[in-house]
Design a protein that fits this description.
Blueprint: H1 16-21, H2 35-47, E1 60-62, E2 66-67, H3 72-84, E3 89-94, E4 97-103, E5 111-115, H4 125-133, H5 156-170, E6 179-183, H6 192-198, E7 202-207, H7 210-218, E8 224-226, H8 229-242, E9 246-251, H9 254-263, E10 270-271, H10 291-300, H11 302-325, E11 329-330, H12 337-345, H13 356-366, E12 370-376, H14 381-394, H15 399-411, E13 419-424, H16 435-448, E14 456-460, E15 468-469, H17 487-499, E16 503-508, E17 518-526, H18 530-553, H19 557-565, H20 571-574
Parallel strand pairs: 3-5, 5-16, 6-7, 6-10, 7-9, 8-9, 10-11
Antiparallel strand pairs: 1-2, 3-4, 12-13, 12-14, 14-17, 15-17, 16-17
Helix pairs in contact: 2-3, 5-6, 5-13, 9-11, 10-11, 11-12, 14-16, 16-18, 17-18, 18-19
Length: about 575
């Protein structure tokens, strides 16, 4: 492995304008020539809000090294370009650096982004780190480099939906009296304790970085913390026996915690993990080190760090397997820890527990459902509360959606720009409008009527029904064996460009690491205009529609039924 790390490339000192902003600009006055450009500027800065990103002073948003821009000079250049960008121009951003600007047309995307993409033969961490050390590339994660991250509030509903699906399958609908054990309280994993308690369960979460536990407690995602595993187990048992929701963060390495539980013959009901195991150098912490000691080791001896990190992952996975054998429901939560130890530690039985998508989420993907999210560019929480009312009014039959909105209003604190997320899909109404299109058009009307103060930007996670190829996560165990076929996210990005999305991005790596996934994203700015309505109608048909056709092509009955019900063209089916 190359001895250099990302530190070899000097990103420079934090930008003076970033220090002044400390988050997204808000209000109704804009710096750019239009709201589409302004939305891009605000979402970029929202990613780098200290209340949203993990290390914004290093341009790191989440996931180890997931960045919003390649360097502070690049950040300043992006800001300048967005301010000057005309309504018929498109800015090109290559791995966090603006590289070109062309005249296109007003219905074209204002920004096109590509992050971390490497030609197949060279598509691995070794080559990535070599390029990164030369300042030629950056890791965009999923929503970090596409300027769509909204903090832990963005992942909370997906985690909630996954656990709700688990509860439906194994525990008669909720997690009352059940104990869920997991690891990782970073940008993605930090949602886990609250998602468990929202489903009425009890959560024990390991986290080696105590600051992350403190942050989750401060923002209401976790209730308590301890350094004592016995205390955590005892409190969790008491809460479970009482049928009370409860969560506790344990300041401990996750592998050590699982081994400690096995030594104590403690078997939880559910075992999973959301540490940043996709990145063995920058994301995961080896056992036996404090955070400061591990950071020092990484700088002094990257090879040793990686080897010890992978050794710890092997123990970690074995702990999950042993706890599963003892009776727990086990699933991997999308961090590729199974793939890491199978590839690097020859652990052939690593995949003896499933990933969360084939276990619980794929039926939703077949219907084009996924994590649909939106942010209020005004910065006014009332704008999001008005959208909450709108989504409930539009879908009176969706009882679980109503419950989610109620829970989110009560328990989810806004981070940076006020935002919301919910899972909406393709199902069409009598006018042929999908769920997502109906909701987006209603928001656009509310902006036009002045009921919402400023435009709303609608985006989503890259983890969506038809926008990702990731054989160890979203496309694991596809029915037709097409797990690694990466044409689908490329088609998704191309189609959303054709439909008129305002930002479109394509990334490699995401939450499972370089070479392990390809994925795409989009933004649409709802500013109350007819043009915004036109874009919304198209994009929120094409985007969830990709999920339906991708899974219909793979032979899933749920997707074929959705295509038939909602009149989605599936040529090879329609012509037989």
């Amino acid at each position: 492995m190359n001895e250099g790390t990302e530190a070899d490339h000097d990103i420079g000192e934090p930008s003076a304008q970033w220090r002044e902003y400390q988050g997204a600009p808000t209000g109704t006055d804009i710096e750019c020539r239009g709201w589409r450009q302004e939305a891009a500027l605000r979402m970029l800065n929202n990613n780098l809000d200290p209340d949203v990103g993990e290390k914004p002073e290093e341009l790191v948003v989440y996931g180890g090294t997931g960045r919003a821009a390649r360097s502070w000079d690049a950040y300043d250049a992006i800001m300048a370009e967005l301010r000057e960008l005309d309504d018929d121009e498109t800015l090109l951003v290559q791995s966090g650096k603006p590289v070109g600007r062309f005249t296109t047309h007003e219905r074209a995307p204002r920004v096109l982004i590509a992050n971390s993409n490497i030609v197949g033969k060279w598509d691995d961490w070794e080559h990535f780190h070599e390029l990164e050390a030369k300042g030629l590339i950056m890791y965009g994660q999923m929503t970090a480099g596409s300027w769509a991250y909204i903090g832990t509030q963005g992942i909370i509903q997906g985690t909630y939906e996954t656990l709700a699906a688990l509860a439906d399958e194994h525990y008669d609908g909720d997690l009352t009296g059940k104990i869920v054990v997991t690891g990782g309280l970073g940008g993605m994993g930090g949602a886990q304790p609250l998602a468990v308690t929202m489903n009425h369960g009890v959560c024990i979460a390991a986290e080696v970085d105590e600051r992350r536990i403190d942050r989750r407690i401060e923002t209401g995602y976790c209730m308590e913390k301890t350094d004592d595993l016995d205390e955590a187990i005892e409190k969790a048992k008491e809460a479970a026996e009482a049928g009370e929701p409860y969560s506790i963060g344990v300041h401990i390495n996750a592998a050590d915690m699982l081994e400690g539980m096995l030594e104590r013959e403690f078997v939880p009901d559910v075992i999973t993990d959301q540490t940043s195991a996709h990145d063995e150098l920058e994301g995961y912490y080896p056992s036996g080190y404090t955070v400061a000691e591990a950071d020092e080791l990484r700088e002094e001896d990257a090879e040793k760090y990686v080897e010890e990190s992978l050794d710890t992952m092997a123990r970690h996975v074995q702990g999950i397997l042993d706890i599963q054998d003892a009776g727990a429901v086990a699933f991997e939560y999308g961090n590729n820890i199974r793939g890491q130890v199978k590839e690097h530690r020859n652990m052939q039985h690593a995949f003896d527990f499933p990933g969360f998508v084939p276990a619980y989420i794929r039926p939703l993907f077949c219907q084009g459902k996924g994590p649909f999210r939106w942010a209020a560019l005004s910065g006014n929480p009332d704008d999001i509360h008005r959208t909450d009312e709108a989504v409930v009014e539009l879908f009176p039959e969706k009882e679980q959606l109503h419950r989610w909105i109620d829970l989110a209003q009560e328990q989810v604190e806004f981070q940076g720009l006020p935002s919301r997320v919910c899972w909406l899909g393709y199902s069409t109404d009598d006018d042929g409008l999908t769920e997502r299109a109906r909701f987006a058009l209603r928001i656009n009307e509310l902006v036009a009527d002045g009921e919402i103060e400023a435009p709303i930007v609608v985006t989503r996670d890259h983890l969506d029904a038809g926008s990702v190829a990731s054989p160890n996560r979203e496309t694991e165990a596809m029915r037709d064996g097409s797990d690694a076929v990466a044409d689908w996210p490329i088609l998704n990005a191309l189609l959303n460009c054709a439909a008129g999305a305002d930002i479109v991005s394509v990334h490699d790596g995401g939450g499972v690491g370089i070479g392990n996934a390809l994925h795409a994203n989009n933004h649409v700015v709802l500013d109350g205009t007819d043009l915004a309505a036109e874009k919304a109608r198209r994009v929120f048909t094409t985007d969830p529609g990709m999920g339906v056709i991708r899974h219909a092509d793979a032979g899933y009955d749920e997707a074929l039924e959705q295509a038939e019900k909602s009149n989605v063209a599936v040529p090879m089916r329609d012509r037989t």
